[in-house]
Write a structure and sequence with these properties.
Number of strands: 7
Strand order of the largest sheet: 3-2-1-4-5-6-7
Number of domains: 1
CATH superfamily: NAD(P)-binding Rossmann-like Domain
CATH architecture: 3-Layer(aba) Sandwich
Oligomer: single chain
Structural class: alpha/beta
Strand content: 5-15%
Order of helices and strands: EHEHEHEHEHEHHE
Largest sheet: 7 strands, parallel
Number of helices: 7
Shape: globular
CATH topology: Rossmann fold
Distance between the termini: 44 Å
CATH class: Alpha Beta
Helix content: 40-55%
Length: 250
């Protein structure tokens, strides 16, 4: 597809946690539709550089890398300033970066609370706040990666579930606060990528509780991001469950 045929050509997206997994697939999908990208990473420098090289082989000078620990809230306005200096605009913020680990009741610690709340709720909020002035100039949008466990708590993961529930309310609150010029939506993945400790039996059990009886892929999430950006001009404050119908089952 030539640049003139790409509907998003020249637009700019910031994707947090972009070096691996779902974040990297979102990057590839948006880039293939003409977008320039600011790819954030924390410690995955080699993977981020490899992704930059991969994408710039297709379209030179279309990627900038941003390294930061998003838990350091005071650094977040600086990330937005770097994007403004490099690209001159921002059209989309994808709050993808997250942490996930169990915190069983009886052994949960304050440090775990602070870590999970920070990465899943505090950092996306303050990064959105910092990005809002640039996004308002382009009538851009924010997309948060939420989780079906914001609505259906996951056993032994109470703090994570609480944090994602806050993230889901953030979508609605920011949509109200930032309208009419900025749309804010969320995507709640289901069984897309398995945590390393998930056994084959556990995977089968989870998939058995989905309506479609199969796992999804990172591409399912990336295509949903593209839809919310490109084809959903009258949608804001909504969270789309991309979960194969898992949310419907008991």
């Amino acid at each position: 597809m030539s640049e003139t045929q790409q509907p998003l050509a020249g637009k700019v997206a910031l994707i947090t946690g972009a070096a691996h997994r779902i974040g990297a697939q979102i990057a590839r999908t948006l880039h293939s539709n003409g977008m320039n990208l600011a790819l954030h990473y924390r410690s995955s420098g080699e993977a981020a550089k490899a992704l930059k090289q991969e994408l710039e082989t297709i379209r030179p000078n279309s990627i900038t890398l941003l390294q930061a620990d998003l838990n350091q809230t005071e650094l977040l306005p600086g990330l937005i300033n770097q994007i403004q200096k490099h690209f001159g605009q921002l059209d989309l913020l994808v709050n993808n970066a997250s942490t996930f680990y169990p915190t069983p009741i009886g052994s949960a610690q304050v440090k775990q609370w602070e870590g999970l709340i920070s990465t899943n709720m505090r950092a996306p909020f303050f990064l959105s706040q910092a990005a809002a002035p640039l996004l308002q100039e382009t009538r851009g949008c924010i997309i948060n990666l939420v989780d079906i466990h914001a609505e259906r708590p996951l056993k032994d993961h109470s703090i994570y579930s609480i944090a994602k529930a806050g993230n889901a309310m953030m979508v609605k609150s920011l949509a109200q606060e930032l309208g009419p010029h900025i749309r804010v939506n969320g995507i709640a993945p289901g069984a897309i990528l398995w945590p390393e400790q998930t056994t084959q039996d556990k995977q089968a059990e989870i998939l058995g509780r989905t309506t479609l009886k199969r796992a999804g892929t990172p591409d399912d999430i990336a295509k949903s991001v593209l839809f919310l950006l490109k084809d959903a001009d009258y949608i804001t404050g909504q969270i789309i469950a991309v979960d194969g119908g898992r949310i419907l089952q008991q």
